[in-house]
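pinging the channel bc i need a second pair of eyes. not urgent but kinda urgent?? the chain im working w is below, pasted from the shared doc
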Amino acid sequence: MKNFLFFFFLVFSLSACQDRSGFGMLSDNSAADQSGYDWESETIEESNQAAPTASSKESDDRQSNNTAPKERKIIKTAEIRAEVKDLKKSSASVEAKIKKYRGFIGNVNYQNGYNQMEANFSIRVPHDQFDALLNDLGEEALYLEYKNIRSQDVTEEYLDLETRLNTKKTVRDRYIEVLKNRAKTVEEILMAEDKIRVIQEEIESKEGRLNFLKNQVSLSTIHLNLYQNVSGPTAQQPNFFHKIGRAFGEGWETFLNILIGLVNIWPIVLILCLLIYLFRRFWSSRKK
């Protein structure tokens, strides 16, 4: 009986100690909850949220493989140089074909040489019309000098930018919420605004790069160089009357140049005139 009473007393004492311990922990937590907003805790929480995005790259790669896009992000570029029979007709035909495939000319440059005429086109065309336009342009060639095609896969960079951009926007929204609802002091407000400014700059930078990739993927580029070989100068030869008019003009220009030259050397002309006058008087006196 005594043993039973001792055991019962021991169990009751242990239970009482645990209750007091639990009450103490609850009081500490309550005090922490009433201590107010802790900015450093928010900063650490934000860092802890962003960290798994970088540290769990392997997990994200597996998820991206499972949800891989049906169409990869490919930047296509082509360079063509070809000889044509008639550059003027071929240039007009190229412009018509570009419109046919919903493309546009970014830049065009014509050059006339002594024995060759050239036309350089910089063409942008929707990526789904790239191959069709490329094959159609090849039909203009009398002789195809070269045809280079490059494809750059930017799918990984594209998806990585999208993921990082979404993460940055989430963090920015959390700081905006902190600024609106939790920041009380001037120091906390300035710190939240600085965090928002830095993150917003990073968001704009990544958005710029993402928009550039979207433009390059959606519109492929073709650099086309067409040339026509000619036997001599491409300018029209002047006729007889044109030569007469040009000779008259050149003669008048020569006369004016001589007159200007005489004006420039007027001291020498004056001295020569004086010497001639003195020589004539001397010669006349000797004859008399």
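so The first strand starts at residue 74 and ends at 83. and The chain is about 65% helix and 20% strand. — does that match what u expected or am i reading it wrong
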